[in-house]
Amino acid sequence: MIRDARVLRAGFVPREVEHRDAEVNHLSSVLEPITNEEPADTAIVTGPSGAGKTCVSQFVTERLREEVLDVETTYVNCWRNYTRFRTLYQILDDLGATIDIHRQSTPHDELVDRLQQHNGPRTVVILDEVDQLEDPSVIYDLHSLPQFAIICIANKEEELFSRVDDRLVSRLRSSEHVRMDKYHDEQLYDILSARAKWGLDDDVITNDQLYRIADAAAGDARLAIGILRTAAGKADRENHERITDDILLDAAEDARAQIKQKSLDSLTPHQRVVYDVVREHGPVGPSEIHERYSEEVDDPRTKRTIRSYLSKMEQYNLLEAEGTSRDREYSLVDSAAASPMQ
Ligand SMILES: Nc1ncnc2c1ncn2[C@@H]1O[C@H](COP(=O)(O)OP(=O)(O)OP(=O)(O)O)[C@@H](O)[C@H]1O
Question: Which UniProt keywords apply (predicted)?
Fold first, then answer.
């Protein structure tokens, strides 16, 4: 049943990216100067979850490495590495330059100095979930080092700009911006169809079933591929020759639950407190959320930061907001109400 399980995994970078030619070309052209050993502009890639931001960025950088000998790439998930230290450390670690750095005692400036002294090939740094950095000055650190080209990935441009200081905003505003929207059903169908072709044996899933997955995923390629992977895994374990409609129905629910759990696991300790406040007291407005959150933690973040947490959790379908900006209230997303598999 399963021909190549890798193709169905979440982090797989496909040989062909579907329906994102313009975005691939745009991002490639921004990075083009480094093929001539010249500094490249920073690129900002934005769009909703599952729009292909990470996939397109990794595809473009891998292709660049195929074409040019002297280019390195490194990828940092800034949600997981949300402090300046951890992001800088992660980049240096990828470059093999962390020997004798002590996690507790090495000052930030020393890490930046190390990056500055790095005399290897030009390096493209992908900063994924960059809007989750507690201290976005790391973007500034990298921006000032010409041997690094940066791709900043975020859900919303405003979220990113609202968190950085003026000098960085003006630099980022002049950066190249690659925007991506949710996929249409037809586009998701094509993405799924390619994965099914490479990942599964023939006739394991029908076109009609692929369309139904595309429809249920509502524009999110991560969810669509997750449903396909879950369904194929279950059918394989239960020794079916094909994915049945019943399996598909369960897979949609399971894939949603898995993605939700992964997003919950990604929350930083402070974000988790905010989530729990909404879980216990929702529907609840931002001011009350901030008050209750501040009672729970020793070093509360600002109201503005809490608003950005709420927005992120909304993007990741953990919370939903109702009302206009003045009387907005947050509650947990009711998973049972998500667009069902028909
Ligand atoms: N155009 C595409 N062609 C082929 N596969 C795609 C395409 N877009 C997305 N995918 C696949 O869909 C999944 C989700 O995409 P990706 O992780 O790039 O989304 P994202 O926009 O970065 O989402 P998030 O903000 O949640 O990280 C990945 O497995 C990716 O390989």
Answer: ATP-binding, DNA replication, Nucleotide-binding, Plasmid
